[in-house]
Write a structure and sequence with these properties.
The complex is a heterodimer of chains A (about 110) and B (about 110). Chain A has no helices and 10 strands. Chain A has about 110 residues and is mostly beta strands. In chain B, the strands form 2 sheets. In chain B, strands 2, 4, 5, 6, 9, 10 and 11 form a 7-stranded mixed beta sheet that branches. Classes of the chains: A mainly beta (about 110), B mainly beta (about 110).
């Protein structure tokens, strides 16, 4: 099973770009990497998923280098409402998601 | 609003009580899940249901008893709980079982066991 390592916490300011990198081993070529966001006392929410070098949607971008040993979630121009915990979840082949500790992002005014 | 609702949102119970948590999804999904999130711990998968059949029980104590009467409803029956069972209990659903399918989470039930 792929084991993930993310920074425990990050701080940023409004309007800045935030990049959260996740390290993961044993990930296969077509294994997906999914990122979720969780606000306090709420369930996680899907942000983005991909397995190619770059995926972009209306809220974030996901960068995956050729060696696939890491992935980076990029949040452009963060706002206070982006303060949350962000989870990196490589496909484990299991029936459900395996959550790690995530990265706690704090956005300051 | 994700299309997954949970009731009650908050629950306080004694160790001798019996209560049930309810989850309902309005997304037409075939898979449903129970997760537990304790303070300062990662989410822990408890149970997985596919088309009303339990397909995974992640070593959960028998004082937690799930029930899935149909693909839209999922219950978690609680009895003789311990204070360490206090946590946020999250329900989720997805179109199918594979972990690559996007999971949609409910708002959770904040459970306190006295």
């Amino acid at each position: 099973l792929a084991k993930t390592t993310q920074p425990i916490s990050m701080d940023s300011y409004e309007g800045q770009e935030v990049n959260i990198t996740c390290s993961h081993n044993n990930i296969a070529t077509n294994d997906y990497i999914t990122w979720y966001q969780q606000f306090p006392s709420q369930g996680p929410r899907f942000i983005i998923q991909g397995y190619k070098t770059k995926v972009t949607n209306e809220v974030a971008s996901l960068f995956i280098p050729a060696d696939r040993k890491s992935s980076t979630l990029s949040l452009p121009r963060v706002s206070l409402s982006d303060t949350a915990v962000y989870y990196c979840l490589p496909d484990t082949g299991r029936r459900a998601l395996t959550f790690g500790s995530g990265t706690r992002l704090q956005v300051q005014p | 609003e994700t299309g997954v609702t949970q009731t009650p949102r908050h629950l306080v119970m004694g160790m001798t009580n019996k209560k049930s948590l309810k989850c309902e999804q309005h997304l037409g999904h075939n898979a449903m899940y129970w997760y537990k999130q304790s303070a300062k711990k990662p989410l822990e998968l408890m149970f997985v249901y596919s088309l009303e059949e339990r397909v995974e029980n992640n070593s959960v104590p028998s004082r937690f008893s799930p029930e899935c009467p149909n693909s839209s409803h999922l219950f978690l029956h609680l009895h003789t709980l311990q204070p360490e069972d206090s946590a946020l209990y999250l329900c989720a659903s997805s179109p199918q079982i594979p972990s690559t399918d996007t999971q949609y989470f409910g708002p959770g039930t904040r459970l306190t066991v006295l």
